[in-house]
Amino acid sequence: MLTHYSSATLDLEKIFDAHWYQEKNPDLAIAQCDALEHYLKYGAVQKRSPHPLFDTAWYMGRYPEVVGGDQNPLQHYLEHGARRGYDPHPLFDSDWYLERYPEVVTSGENPLRHYLERGALGGFDPHPLFASDWYLLQHQDVAAAGINPLVHYVEYGAAEGRDPNPFFDSDWYLSCNTDVAASGVNPLVHFVCHGAIEGRAPNPLFDLSNYRRHQPSVALAGINPLAHFLRFGIEGSSLQERPSKARETHQSDAAYGGWLWRNRWDSTAEARAHAAVGQLLQKPLFTLILTDTDPSADVIRRVLLRLEEQIYPDWELCAFVSKACLRELKAFLKTRPEAAQRLILLDTRPASPLSKNGLRRADEAARGTHVLLLSETWRLAPAALTSIALALDRYPDTDLVYSDHDHYRPDGLRYAPAFKPDWSPELLLSYPYIGAAFCLRRDLFGSALQAVVTNGEGLPSDLLLCAADKPVKVIHVAQVLFHSEAPPQIMAEKVSQQTWQRIVQAALDRRRLPAQAYQPDWAQREDVPATALKFADTGPHVAIIIPTRNYVRVLRKLIVSLAQTRYQNYSVHVVDNESDDPETLEYLAQLEHQVIRIASPQGCFNFSYINNQAVSQVEADNILFLNNDTEIIAPDWLSAMVGYLSIPGVGAVGAKLLFPDYRVQHAGVLLGTYNGLPGHAFGHLPAGEHGYLRYAEVARDYSAVTAACMLTPRQLFLDSGGFDEHRFAVAFNDVDYCLRLGEAGYRIVYCPTASLIHHGGLSRGAGDDPAEEAAILQRAPRRDPYYNPNLSDDGLFTPRADGPAWEFAALGSSPARTNAVRQLPQ
Question: What are the backbone dihedrals phi and psi of residue 391, each rounded to the nearest 5 degrees, phi first?
Answer without folding.
Answer: -65, -40
